[in-house]
Amino acid sequence: MNKDIIIQVSNLTKRYGDILAVDHISFEVKEGEVFGFLGPNGAGKTSTIRMLTGLSKPTEGNAFIFGLDINSQILQIKKYIGVVPEISNLYDELSAMDNLMFMAQLYGVPRKERRQRAEELLRIFKLYERKNSPFRTFSRGMKRALTIAAALIHSPKILFLDEPTVGLDVVAARSLRNLISNLRHQGITIFLTTHYLEEADLLCDRVAILVKGRILVIDTPLNLKRKTDKKTLEDAFMKITGLEPEILAIEKGK
Amino acid sequence: MWRDNLRGIFYIALKDIKTYYLKPPAISWGIVFPITWILAFYLRNPGDFKELVPGLIAMTILFSTTSAEAVVINFELRLGTLERLLLVPISIGGIFLGKVLGGVIFGFFMTTVVTIVSVVVLKLHPNILYLILIILPSLFVFSSFGALLCVMVKEVFEAQTLLNLPRFLMIFLSGVIYPVSKMPCALQYFAYILPLTYTVDGLRKSFLISPDKSVFSYTLMLVGFFFLFIFPAEKLLSKKFE
Predict the structure, then answer these.
(1) A87 to chain B: closest CA residue
(2) What is the tens place of the pLDDT at every residue in A224-236?
(3) Do A106 and B88 touch (CB under 8 A)?
(4) Where in chain A are the domains?
(5) Interface contact flag, A54 B91, Cβ < 8 Å
(6) Would an 8 Å CB–CB cutoff place A134 in contact with chain B?
(7) Please, where are the H alpha helices in B17-91?
(8) Reported pTM
């Protein structure tokens, strides 16, 4: 395996009864890159993240993260990854500081470093002033920021972000994108799912376009725009996924 | 890996005690409820209160360990916080044991208070070793029993309702108030498939002047019940995330 490749996925498949959510996908993610997983709702983005992070088992296929098998070595893998789920799911009753401390305890962050690391993250995410406020009193943007901070408490090498800016206002979304960009400069590999194509264009080094559980293409946003002769990633996405005629029909109907 | 699991079990239990158990509803279910019940039975049929002490302790174990179980599991499942725990390097069995241990520690605290107050006020002389041999496994049995019933349903209210049925059934059929030996034969057989019967019987024997060694066999039965509840509960929880 290439040294730079830290996620290697081959023929990964997830079936829920009769529904094929992820259909034999294969791809690789290089160290330090921001890899975007794009697709409409129900494309299989979240199902893929759930398999890669150990929340569900693949029906078929395999993936290796740092050379470790997700089917048999997932607990070891979890030490090196941070996950930000689509829903900000920290403890409502606990304060921002207590939430981070609890996560630090579970990840086995050394006792002496826990508080220091939590305070550092609260400062980075501009939540230090609210460190003693319960999570439930936070705005949606602040909840998102704290959820990302919780995923970074153990200094992971890969961060999985599932629809990080969903439901955020423009200012909160922009601030979050800046934070993601900063994390990338710190050398953290980022695996991002989103259906905001402008966001993917801004943040991602490479993107995979997923439709009905299958990867249609993997390339840089620039190459995708060039190959499809489109100015924006959104237009390129429409062309690649075959959604362009539908959009044109809707526009004509106007 | 076992060190990660042990650490996880401990901190999950600690967090649950702080967040859910040390709250008025859990405390009232865990301690006020059993005392009220016992007092009600005593006032209805006054006799030697000492005879009701094993039943009081057994009820405290049952209600304190299961008082917040529905919230700890079903509420967290709905909020997604339980799923968040699955993202940390701890096995699902470890997470589940952490949830069970929260109930056990809270139950231990409540049961200790009730036992000490009963022993001191009523000047009782129980066999401490026998008490421990019955109380400790019982705490694990009823906490895992509560957890099993909770993972069988989706909502907190469903879990509370489902938990009430066996809880009240056990109060009446396990010898808490009415001795099993005086029940009709068929009910006696039924009583011995209920774990609380072993807890009550074991506690009664711990309070006898010349304690009976059958307490050891009750301990084994209770350990058996614990495994009977914990394994399917863990399997059901794993299925929920699929």
Answers:
(1) B80
(2) 999 988 888 888 8
(3) yes
(4) 84-156
(5) no
(6) no
(7) 24-27, 33-44, 53-66, 69-70, 76-79, 81-85
(8) 0.87
